[in-house]
Design goal:
single chain, 327 residues, alpha/beta, Collagenase (Catalytic Domain), 6-stranded mixed β-sheet, binds zinc ion
Amino acid sequence: MGLRPNLLTRRAAGVASTTLALLLSTAAVGVVPAASAFSAAPGGACVEPTDSHANARLKPGAAAKHEPNELTAKQVRERDADLAAALRERATFRTGAGTAPLATVTIPVVVHVIQENSTRAGGNIPDSLITAQINVLNQAYAGATGGAATAFAFRLDAINRVTNPSWYPIVEGSSAERSMKSSLRVGGKNTLNMYLGELSDDLLGWATFPQRRLNSMDGVVVLSESLPGGTATNYNQGDTGTHEVGHWLNLYHTFQGGCGGSGDSVSDTPAEASPAYQCPTGRNTCSAAGLDPITNFMDYTYDSCMYQFTPGQASRMLTAWNAYRAA
Ligand SMILES: [Zn+2]
């Protein structure tokens, strides 16, 4: 049972430690994805917001509980100021889409599979799920699913299987997470370290934003059963990975900032007052032009509902790459 996260958790103050978190099924009664029966992907069928089962997982109390954890306007200003400063630091950098053909960036990916033991329930997912996840990333970031093409492609360099019960589940913001990443992280700023496992607090995943100084916490953490073919119903087509990598490449949620201000700092994603869940039809929560971007990878809808980045997001990611992660 999966409620797409409506939480953006920030555990520590300051830009350097900002972490985004996705929460899975908090309003469900303690059902964790690993305990769910396998369910086939919903095949693109959108669930209307009137669906009673879906609404049952959207308790107002749960939504209110998560609200304080969203990125504040001040934090967004700090991050965007840092991006500008990072760009100034660069002697040369490529601009985003619109002024030149997109650069092609191939991102080396190292996947760390955190296991409690050798069983599937203990985190031992097959390699086939991981290769499927890389394929999903490549399709999504190439625009092959219906969105804008971005500069990015992904190359799986290694699968590192680690059995360590003290790191399982992966607990967001914990000393164990820090220990895990300090021990396992490899590569430079351009290397995507992806940690897979069971996650704390019914989370689907979380990610770090890019920073000027490489930090061992850098990377994305993704619920292993959210990979394509996994057991996280409604969230098992790999789009949690796509979403988290979007954060790793400096994207905010489409609902960041609500209806006012600079929103998600991208001009072609219509403003959205709050996260969208499931796959609502005709949702329009702000008076500004455009329906809510519920099909965007950076919203909280079902995997079957989200399929695109915008040109503005592609540009923002490439700009951030050149500011923070390019060699
Ligand atoms: Zn997110």
